[in-house]
Amino acid sequence: MNKTGWILVLLAMLLIGQRAVADDLGVPWSALSADEQQVLKPFQDNWDQLPAKRQQRLRAGVERWQHMTPEQRKRMTRRFEHWQQMTPEQKARVRKRFQRFKQLPPEQREQLRRQYRRFQNLPPEKRQRLRQRWRNMSPEERRAFRERRRERMEQRQGQHRDRGDR
Question: CA–CA separation, 19 vs 55, rounded Å?
């Protein structure tokens, strides 16, 4: 399989979402569409031994990939290549942060998403300056910065709740 095929397979695995499985029985390889078989070809030999939930998640990842625009696919390919270059320790940190993110209340998750989008929309030079400023902070300065941000976020949320009560 060529590099693109492997990237597709690995992206499918990364894009796995949480989906309910209708039953505990897996889907036979022969029941997969030709497109699914093409992308999931590396799993063909042991497909029948995969748990049904894993099969469903892999198929869901393939479906998401197929509905992406070329730009979204390019972005996912870059993310995947970046992921592959990370050390196991870096991957573990990312997983841990993601778990913490998932445990946040929906309002805080949305606030973080807005902040991320705002950061991404900054000119590259400004983003680089902010990254460098962060790198130059001591651990104590970073903690203080996070605490100030957290307090401001809580104040904003309180203001929004107060407006809703009127």
Answer: 11
